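Quick note —
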Amino acid sequence: MSAEYVSKHGDISRPPSELYMSFTDMRNFAAMLPEEKRQGVKAGFDSISFEIQNFSVGVKVDGRFPYSKIVYVDDGAPFRFKVTLFFDEGREPSRTDFHIEVEAELNLMMKMMLGSKIKEGMDKIIDAMEDPTRFASEFKF
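Predicted structure written out below.
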């Protein structure tokens, strides 16, 4: 069963090109993790893999559309998914209108268990990115 989730839009105080470049290299995601959580994380330019609650999860870049969109897909995960990040020009050239879309193949039970958590997680990411002090400390790009 396919499920789609869309985050709220965030007004990020970085230009689209700069924000986009932060997300092109999957090694940046590993660098965001605290040192003690990096154990078992394998990251390269195009992919990252890790274990969460005894599940192996792999994610790879499926498409880079310079300065406007990056698409990630599952690469060995308990279910199929696609995550798309959008980097649109904001109210000013130095700002980005940023949002996330997730498509996931979830059975009914998984959808009930994860559905609200996926949306909540995406919105928390947007909130953190909108706050320049949190963005600098939590997203170490």
